[in-house]
Amino acid sequence: MSSWMEKDPGMLLKRSFLFGMAGIILCLATVFNNYFEIIALPHGPINGIGIALQLFGLSIAVLVLRRRKIEEALKDKAKKMILVLSVALIYFFLVI
Q1: Angle between helices 43-66 and 72-95 (to 10 degrees)
Q2: Where are the membrane-spanning stretches (predicted)?
Q3: What pLDDT is stored for residue 74 in this prediction?
Q4: Domain-embedded: residue 44
Q5: Is residue 54 part of a domain?
Q6: d(CA 15, CA 32)
């Protein structure tokens, strides 16, 4: 089993994007359901999973950014991913 530090940075950023977007979509679904009351569901567990997915995506992006000897384009993508996921986390913490 290989370490996360040995994996390709491009692939790690794709995974970071997927985890982050899945978390944002889950949290947005609960926000919309809270306002429009479409389905009677407990929002706590769904928000928790969404925030956990966002934090996991954020940690992967930070892992890529901390690497040595990576391309400048990948560093810029990692910085943008960190910014987007940080703002999304702050928003969902304030909405909840």
Answers
A1: 160
A2: 12-32, 44-65, 77-94
A3: 93
A4: yes
A5: yes
A6: 26
Q: How far apart are CA 30 and CA 47, in angstroms?
A: 7
Across 11-25, b (16+ Cβ under 10 Å) vs e yields ebbebbbebbbbbbe
pTM for the structure as a whole: 0.90
Can you give the residue range of the structural domain that contains 61?
A: 12-95
The structure tokens 């560093």 sit at 75
Q: Count structural domains, the chain.
A: 1
CB–CB of 53/92 below 8 Å? no
Mean pLDDT by 10 residues, the chain (96 residues): 79 95 95 88 90 96 91 94 96 89
Angle at which helices 43-66 and 9-36 cross, to 10°:
160
